[in-house]
Amino acid sequence: MSLSRLLIKDFRNIENADLALSPGFNFLVGANGSGKTSVLEAIYTLGHGRAFSQFANWSRHPP
Known about the structure:
Helices cover 21% and strands 22% of the residues. By secondary structure, it is α+β, with helices and mostly antiparallel strands. The protein has one domain. Strands 1-2 form a two-stranded antiparallel ribbon. 3% of the residues are buried.
């Protein structure tokens, strides 16, 4: 399955977004705080039913 269009409304710092996605690779480019991570989290939430920010206490490097 692939996404061809993503509509986001009132999600994190994104008020409204309508993204047309191409087959293959799509790149998110923008300044800090512009919503790149919010777009990724919206896609993740779509597939998993919860945001990956819920795992903020998870560490990549265990002690």
